[in-house]
Amino acid sequence: MSLPNPDEIAAKAHLLPMLRAAIRAIETERFDQAEGFLDSILKQEPDFADALHLKGYIAFQRGALDTARQLVDQAIAKDFHFEDYHVTLGHILLALGDREGARNSFGAAIALNPKYNEAYIGLAHIFLAEDSVDSAIGALATARSSSAKNPETNYMLGYALMIKGDAKQAIRFFGLAHKLAPDIVRYKVGLARSLRDVRLKQPNPELVANVLPLLGEPGIEPRDLAPLIESAICLDPVFVALNPIDAMPGQAVAAVLSRPSCPDLLGITALPAWLKYGLVSHPKLERRLTALRRGLLAMAFNSPEALSRYESLLCLMAICGFQAEYIDWVSQHETIALTELAAKLETYSPADSPALFAVYACYRPLYQRHDVERLASASWPDAYADLKRIQIDEPLAEQRIATTIPALTPIEDQTSQAVREMYEESPFPRWHQPILGTPQTVSSRLRTALPLQQIPAEERLTPEILVAGCGTGLHAILAATSYAFSKVLAIDLSRTSLSYAIRKATEIGISNVEFAQADILKLGSVPRRFDVIESFGVLHHLRDPAAGLAQLVALLKPGGYMMLGLYSEVGRRDVVKARDLIARLRLGDSPEEVREFRRILPKHDPQLAARLSASSAYYALSDLRDLVFHRQEHRYTPQQLRQFINGAGLEFLGFEFSSPKALSGYRARFPDDPTATNLDHWAEIELENPDLFANCYRFWVRRKPD
Predict the structure, then answer these.
(1) Peptide bond before 151: cis, by omega within 30 degrees of 0?
(2) pLDDT by residue (tens digit) across 195-208?
(3) CATH code of the domain occupying 414-570+635-703
(4) Which of 198, 251, 481, 507 is the most exposed place for a label (fewest CB within 10 A)?
(5) Do residues 314 and 344 make contact, with C-beta atoms less than 8 angstroms apart?
(6) Positions of the chain with pLDDT lower than 50, given as ranges
(7) Nearest to 480 by CA among 520, 443, 449, 434
(8) Residues 539 and 566: beta-carbon distance below 8 Å
(9) How far apart are CA 485 and CA 251, in angstroms?
(10) Top-tier CATH class for 1-114
(11) Looking at residue 616, what DSSP letter applies?
(12) Are 550 and 562 contacting, i.e. CB atoms less than 8 angstroms apart?
């Protein structure tokens, strides 16, 4: 935001305090207050260009694109020689789908000020939308030549370089953006994602120190950092020194841990943060933690007083195990010892013997003990506060929340009941920090998702969004923060999942989401209509996905949009093999049988085990259960998607990808299909690239206007 040019200042100096107040209000998103100041200014000076521009900027932020364009056009007519106005107009035109007009506006700003970074950033957005990555990099490099410390320029350059495939340079520029503006979530997320495939072959303390603060931050997905952090842990000298314990029985491990010379495990730089926030997926780290667990269990019987040295490690291991839902297999010897420990704890107090409770919590959740109310009301030492909160207080709070959740529909379908029961037992997924979106209008969100489509600009100022099948709330919170000024209804079959979602949303401060229990197969009876419906990874678990889709279509406003996620037949080929093996082994889907399958899979099919273990879903019980043990699933080919979509009277708009590479490859292969909507072509490409969609198609459809 800028003050008016010098020519206006003298004549309108008495209005500058209100203008400054409006700018401060805009910078803190107090738009109503800002508009009050601007209206007062315009009442006195109707032609005050900067006030018109700022009102246009507010209208743009609210999604009133036509109004925004009109106001900024007026500002430019009053004062053409102010580059801010042209950049704002460029972004408005870009949101309206007018790339050529936007290009001209950004060009006008550059003509007025050749060093104006924001104009080059705007051009880069156009070039990226047109798949001209090199042109985008060129525009951003020009911007950096005059201002290398603009964080947005560095971030955009990192993004463009990631698309180009130059991960090393992308990491550099994402890192610069984050260093220049460490509080901006997008910059943190960009840096984390650029490090996704980085595995250390030798220690790099400086890189690890820069990355560790990202853990636990909103928007950061720990799995993006897993290769880097876990490889750093495994290279640490303390970790290496303890390699022999991996093959030792529990008593021998306990003897090693009891030695005064045993190194401090929490001296491994990245280990504490990773146990608190990450999901252990490195085989060496997994073996080490299971060895430590059986050693600490043995110590609980032989030398319980020595456990006090390991209280911080115990709490972190118990939190880590809880988040993974204790997916690691437990030996018969440990099971016997654990049963004995569970009985002893009946007479122990957390105030006097907290370490013994922490040992137990490394194997089983405390909130499932029959004496949990006693443990909840007991006094725990400060060192165990996080363990108590995560394993007792929060689950009990969720149980209370579950009794308050409204039910919008009955759940009568037998398949729906079976699926609900599964998610009541294994709410999916457990998560620490949300993935947050950048607030956009519906049209802008669609253009971001579908850059090849001409999405009409429509003013949906307070869009109604439905998330059908929200699970534990991760998707609902993403939607609530992705659509500006939206109202979100998020429904799910499982009260356990919904209570987790409500607790997390409240904790984060998300107030524009309403959660309710409902069955999609009955949802058409709800007397509401929505601008956008998102249902990812849900319909394929219904007995009749087409019937579920028909219910959603009935709730979608004419001209409304829907994002769906459905399983790919090709992408889930390994899952199909796993399900066949599970059937042959006659395994059910109880937690014990999920752990047993994971233990014996390498013996039955080592290649399949290696491929499945490449997925983060392999390392948490509810995730693995959802991946290969689900009680109901349907899978599709692109041609079957066409039949599914057409049968519901919907228009296919295209697949959404996290990277533009897939669309670039498609357009090079099939230039006769500029919108990339020919599903026969996509079937051909998927057969050649079977992991293109991972295991689930993400695509958008539109209900045709009446």
Answers:
(1) no
(2) 999 999 999 999 99
(3) 3.40.50.150
(4) 507
(5) no
(6) none
(7) 434
(8) yes
(9) 59
(10) mainly alpha
(11) G
(12) no
